Amino acid sequence: MTTIWLLLMLLSSPNQPTVKYHAVIYPTEEQCITARTGYMEAYEAKPPEYKLTLKTEAFCIPFDSFPIQGMPKPVNA
């Protein structure tokens, strides 16, 4: 088993019956946090009018996984 990091981005819009999501996996917590920070900074840079039509939050979640072909192994693994 190996630990991967799931960047889970949740999006909510007015008058929508569901919350949408997008997820990406990373081999290290550091890479996930860097991606999360970039995502949230991009959202915060949007004008106030945009933020009235979209709310978002992102989380880095550790997840035990079998090795994933093509994903680099962390240096400390």
Can you give a write-up of this model?
- The protein is an alpha+beta fold and 77 residues long.
- It has one domain.
- Helices cover 26% and strands 38% of the residues.
- The chain is built from two helices and three strands, in the order ββααβ.
- It has a three-stranded antiparallel sheet, covered by helices on one side.
- The longest helix has 16 residues, at 29-44.
- The chain is elongated, with a radius of gyration of 15 Å.
- The model has no long low-confidence stretch (mean pLDDT 92).
Feature tags:
26% helix, 2 helices, 3 strands, alpha+beta, single chain, three-stranded antiparallel beta sheet, 77 residues
State the strand order across the main sheet.
2-1-3
Shape: elongated
Total number of beta strands: 3
Instruction: Calculate the mean pLDDT score and round it.
Output: 92
Radius of gyration: 15 Å
Give the N-to-C terminal Cα separation. 11 Å
The portion of residues assigned to helices is 25-40%
How can the largest sheet be summarized? 3 strands, antiparallel
**Share of β-strand residues:** 35-45%
The helix/strand series, from N terminus to C terminus, equals EEHHE
Number of separate helices: 2
Unreliable segments of 5+ consecutive residues: none
